[in-house]
Amino acid sequence: MSFFVACQHRSDTDLMQIFDDGAPGIRGTGIESAGFTHIFNPIKFKRADAEELTKWSFYRAVIAEFIATLLFLYITVATVIGYKSSTDPNKNTLDNVNCGGVGILGIAWAFGGMIFILVYCTAGISGGHINPAVTFGLLLARKVSLIRALMYMVAQCLGAICGVGLVKGFQKAFYVRYGGGANELSAGYNKGTGLAAEIIGTFVLVYTVFSATDPKRNARDSHVPVLAPLPIGFAVFMVHLATIPITGTGINPARSFGAAVIYNKDKAWDDQWIFWVGPFIGAAIAAAYHQYILRAGAIKALGSFRSNPNV
């Protein structure tokens, strides 16, 4: 999920080191050695778009996003199907088996734990986004280029489709019977509530991503880059606990889209817009909040708020 760049201002003493992939990294922060160079590398829209297409590291990063999202969906959707199968009273009666399953807590841990693992594994290669909403938030903050953002989103969606496809292939007898892991609005909740849940949940996730990978904070606290995947994964875990009863928890358009494509039932498609509009709005709000409120990007551009004794 997640990874960025920062700062458009460069000084002679803060020049960027060019790595083998051509992406600049910040010297003297410990970020390079932590393997999180892609998280903090400033990639300018106009300069990077054309250059990135000529570099193998760009395609390597796209492949990493594809594989990471595939693995994410395979493990998590398989967990959901397994839980529903083990707690089905009809199935348990027939098989004379009574397994309690992992429960909502276990499902939330599966999602949060996989994000923790995959962000840790891919942060130094692609930034470990694994989520179009995270990529969108970073794009708005000008931390990834437009072409990289688009390619990441395509790779994430394709990876999600393939990951859920594997679950269906391996658990064909149970996949359709237990909902295919698709996100749907739960009974008793209206679409406005579902949309709000997705906006707030994605805000929590993307806000955590920005905070955990803030280059200014990492320059001061050298341990932060190594620990960044932990709060991100934990944010996913906590959001799932809160929103599984409402929407099944999307907060990741690729996750919702991949499950809908393979499951391919009307209900999943009817609610699909919630799982794109909500996360993108939540990501945009989180990006604006972090960049222009907490980090005061807009204020710095205009000068700064200072009390004037003459006013």
Q: What would you call the shape?
A: globular
Helix and strand pattern:
EEHHHHHHHHHHHHHHHHH
Q: Please state the second-level CATH architecture.
A: Up-down Bundle
Amino- and carboxy-terminal Cα gap: 46 Å
Structural class given helices, strands, pairing? Answer: mainly alpha
Give the DSSP E fraction (strand runs of 2 or more residues): under 5%
CATH topology: Glycerol uptake facilitator protein
Give the uncertain stretches in residue-range form. 2-47, 93-97
CATH class: Mainly Alpha
For the largest beta sheet, what order do the strands appear in spatially? 1-2
Number of helices: 17
Count of strand segments: 2
Helicity, in percent? 55-70%
Radius of gyration: 21 Å
- Tell me the name of the CATH homologous superfamily: Glycerol uptake facilitator protein
* Main pleated-sheet profile: 2 strands, antiparallel
Total domain count: 1
Average of pLDDT: 81
Protein name: Aquaporin PIP2-4
Membrane topology: Multi-pass membrane protein
Subcellular location: Endomembrane system
Transmembrane segments: 62-83, 103-125, 146-167, 194-212, 224-246, 273-294
